[in-house]
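The material for today's practical consists of a large collection of protein records. An example says more than a description, so a record of this kind follows:
***
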Amino acid sequence: MDTTMIIGIVLLVALVIAAVVAAVLVDRSHKRRTTGERNDSSSRIGPAKPAGQQPEAAATAAPGASSAAIGQSQSDEARPSQADRSDLASAASGPAAMSAPAERVMETPESAGSRITRLKAKLSKSSNPFGRVLFNILAKDHLSETDWEDVEDTLLLADVGADASAKLVDELRNDARVTGTSDPVQVRDALRAKLLDLVGVDTDRRLNADKPGAAESASLQPSVIIMVGVNGTGKTTTAGKLARLFVAEGKKVVMGAADTFRAAAADQLETWGAKVGVNVVRSDKDGADPASVAFDAAQQAKDANADVLIIDTAGRLQNKANLMNELGKIRRVAEKVLPVDEVLLVLDATTGQNGMAQAKVFAEAIGITGVVLSKLDGSAKGGIVIAVQKELGVPVKLVGLGEGPDDLAPFDAPAFVDGILA
């Protein structure tokens, strides 16, 4: 037998062995796959058993853990699933249960008196208490000309205004309690009296909805308030806070979302209203005519016998004639249903004298009846209260104290002066 034949035999044997091994591997793989599929099917479908009885194997199974497992299996089969229980509950309760809304817990707004107390406390902690600076200067034994210049500079930096500052300095110079004594108590009393005169202690700052006879009038028609101002003064937020203030007084309030320019304005107003049960009238689409929203709000407020209707408007620049004219249109259209007896201009107190030019244009365009100074706490220059009243001839009626939902309070002159002197 030659070498070539031997090699051929060896190769043939190797091929046979390889074929046998491959056949064995394929058979094992097929068996494992078949067994896995059978197990999966069993876990999904469960063991087959004749109707009305358990399988014989289970019946003859060993006691103990096996019987406990069988009992648990029977209990699981008898117990309805979570989905089954939900379906049964829905079927039993019927449509009435399905349509019942979740009860909303309404908030209770803070009373006006408590807010005024907080106003005084917050002003005393302000980073710009110009009254305190004035007192420290005036309490010196002998006031020099330089000291009087410091007094006037302090007033100007606090945005009191040039005319009001000059008037106050002249009156203080001629007050014997300041120039004739160094008694701190008398100096403080003199300064307090002069500041109260400038702020206007006897000024009527009540909203028309709070005046005597407003309750009887509201039985016939709601008091209508329009909120106006430039962008970024916190107008919509102030409208929401004002609604809370009226709710705290037991009044029924409706709000109109006539700011149709800013997409989130109506949603923001609805969020404020939902917390205290105040209905908000809004348009179904952005960019709608704000006058039509004001008209619908006035009609719904009248139909609902509301005490107060608050109409929020879009912020606008005072130098845009067409936008300012739109405010006049909103008022005219709303007055086809209800008379507008309050127009509140919202001013950012931190802008100081820069806000005066804005205020004058709004006063001419729509005729404001009062001012709301937002952001009076913190770094605000309190002298703007004096300046804005002198320039516009209308009172500051409300002030914003901070970011909280009840941080809006009726303006109280004595509390304001005591706060800046504290």
